[in-house]
Amino acid sequence: xxLVPNNSLTxxxxxxxxxxxxxxxxxxSLAIQPDEHVQNILRDAYANSPEGLIAASQxxxxxxxxxxxxxxxxx
Length: 75
Known about the structure:
The protein is 69% helix and 0% strand. Helix 1 crosses helix 3 (50-70). It has helices at 14-32, 36-47, 50-70. It contains 3 helices and no strands. It starts with 13 loop residues before the first helix and ends in a 5-residue tail after the last helix.
């Protein structure tokens, strides 16, 4: 499993950085819980939980902040 695609956080644009942030968050989730059956159970639980969705969004936001900093905020 490749946790950081191409071993780089460098992105051409904020849009590309946001996509990378989503990818990193998903890959982290899959690395932590590799059992597909358990993933489906957990997905059902958080898909209906506002708190769970907000927590997942916070993970993506943290990943995006890291990527933005690594790209000098696309300046």
